[in-house]
Amino acid sequence: MAPATLVSEEPPPHLYGETPKADSVRTLPLSLESGDNLVNFRTKQEQKRQEWKDAYDETGRVWTHENGEALHPDWISRRFSRLVELSGLPPVRLHDLRHLAATLSLLAGTDIKVVQEKLGHSSRQITSDTYTSVLPEMMRAEAESVMAVVPREIPFTVSTPMEIPAEAWQGDVAVFFAHGARQSADTWAVGAQPHPDADLLGMITMAGRGQDDAANAAVKWVRDHCAANDLELVRVENFNDRYPEEQRTSFSLTRFTIARSKSPALDAWSLPTGLPPAAIRTARRGPSRRRKTRESTSVH
């Protein structure tokens, strides 16, 4: 038989508040994680509805006690304050979470107009005035983002000179990948391979902040090799977005198409599509270090 009363040390909650004004009603997007949490809570809520049967209070609220009664704001605030106290945090109000969410959103690069709409501020100026402490950090982030799109020459060290064997060529054209892997906080290794299971064509190491730096160093490396061996760099393709979001801080991938000088047109030539294993699975591993002695078409 379903219980008839709630057992709680807090005063019993009661319905609170009036219907919001029409101009205060907003539709807010939710992250996938938040959506999943709501679905899970709705499932548990439905289970409680079945347990309480006719005693369940159909308030129509999303967040309720197990018998369906609405949560009173004062009750929520007291519970939140108790959680803050037990966590050893400095005094934090429940309303401060709204400011925290807005601050994190701005620091993540969200346009201030979007944050304004989300908060329900009547003007962009109100949002800007409220979050002036965030503006210096936003300006620094903007400056970094501008520099990120400007190609830079990244110094690197050649660990293994590049050699392109005869079997890597299809006629006068060769295609290979430069696969970068983070070795430590700011150190990357970039290896060249025609396909994931092939021997290494060469390797460089470099200091960089992310996958774009690794890709830029790879471009410079291949361009230097082409210039020294009478080869033409025909095409460079950045495949960094092929990695899952959580791997992009640790891997980079660039595909190069090179040709012997005075080679015929490439119209009928098909590009390989194989990607290094790390681009299609979550295991983190650096470029293969295997090498074999083989005939090479270039001299280093």
Give me the secondary-structure topology.
Layout: H1 32-52, H2 73-87, H3 96-107, H4 112-119, H5 124-130, H6 135-148, E1 156-160, E2 169-170, E3 173-182, E4 187-193, E5 202-207, H7 211-228, E6 231-238, E7 251-260
Antiparallel strand pairs: 1-5, 2-3, 3-4, 3-7, 4-5, 6-7
User: What is the mean predicted local confidence, pLDDT?
Assistant: 78
Which percent range fits the helix content?
25-40%
Integer-rounded radius of gyration: 29 Å
Class of secondary structure makeup: alpha+beta
Which residue ranges are poorly predicted, with pLDDT under 50 across at least 5 consecutive positions? Answer: 1-15, 278-300
Write a concise keyword list for the protein shown above.
7 helices, hpI Integrase, Chain A, disordered C terminus, 300 residues, alpha+beta, 2 domains, 32% helix
Describe this structure in words.
- It contains seven helices and seven strands; from the N terminus they run ααααααβββββαββ.
- Helix 4 packs across helix 5.
- A hairpin with a 2-residue loop joins strand 2 and strand 3.
- By secondary structure, the chain is an alpha+beta fold.
- Strands 1, 2, 3, 4, 5, 6 and 7 form a seven-stranded antiparallel sheet that branches.
- The N terminus and C terminus are likely disordered.
Brief characterization of the structure:
It contains seven helices and seven strands, in the order H-H-H-H-H-H-E-E-E-E-E-H-E-E. With 300 residues, the protein is of the alpha+beta class. Helix 4 packs across helix 5 (124-130).
